[in-house]
Amino acid sequence: xxSVHKRxxxxxxFCPLPVLKARDAMREILPGQALEVTSDDPAxxxxxxxxxxRTGHEILECERHGPIFRFVLRKTR
Length: 77
Fold this sequence. Notes:
By secondary structure, the protein is of the alpha+beta class.
């Protein structure tokens, strides 16, 4: 289990807001720390994967429970 340093709830927010909020939250944590994001945007999995590939942040966990996605991302730089 990964130790999460910051959590953000993006339930009810749609593209591009979950990614923008994740970007802002990443600025508040240190490299090596983890961010948890929850979202119910159907596009959030693809959006988070593209964003993390572009920024270099690592997706540690990606789960879906019904309509809710849960991502744990590690800040790499």
